[in-house]
Design a protein that fits this description.
The chain contains 6 helices and 3 strands; from the N terminus they run H-H-H-E-H-E-H-E-H. By secondary structure, the chain is α/β, with parallel strands linked by helices. The chain has 2 domains: 33 residues, no CATH class; 73 residues, no CATH class.
């Protein structure tokens, strides 16, 4: 399974804002609407980078991609551990993880970004998602 490198978002903009974006695209400042929106988001994230870094540290978030395999969770179960997962980025619970194994081994799950897991896993952990 190839892990995606981005997540699709949908947003609503007023017609005037959309027209202004189209003007900038037409005049060559941006290659398309998505390019403009990605640039705007990156600029805002850069503006607030210090606050985000402090919150990441304060909340003990793992940054980036974190994949949880059946082997990882079985090892946690064998060690008598329950995981408190905190990820800023993408958390993946692989398809071969059963809902029962996930419930036995994951005490809490906080994902700021995206969680890729089967619908059964998401349902099994719904009371543990923060």
């Amino acid at each position: 399974m190839k892990t995606p490198d981005s997540e699709k978002l949908t947003l609503n903009l007023g017609f005037v804002d959309l027209g202004r974006i189209d003007l900038l695209v037409r005049d060559g400042f941006y290659s398309n609407r998505s390019d403009f929106i990605r640039t705007a988001v990156r600029n805002q994230l850069a503006t607030h980078a210090d606050v985000a870094a402090q919150a990441t540290t304060r909340l003990s978030l793992e940054l980036g991609l974190r994949v949880f395999t059946r082997r990882d969770l079985e090892a946690a179960r064998a060690a008598g551990e329950r995981l408190e997962i905190r990820v800023l980025g993408l958390a993946v619970i692989e398809a071969d993880v059963s809902p029962e194994l996930a419930r036995e081994t994951i005490a809490s799950l906080t994902v700021l970004g995206a969680l890729h897991a089967s619908p059964d896993i998401k349902t099994a952990l719904s009371d543990r998602l923060a």
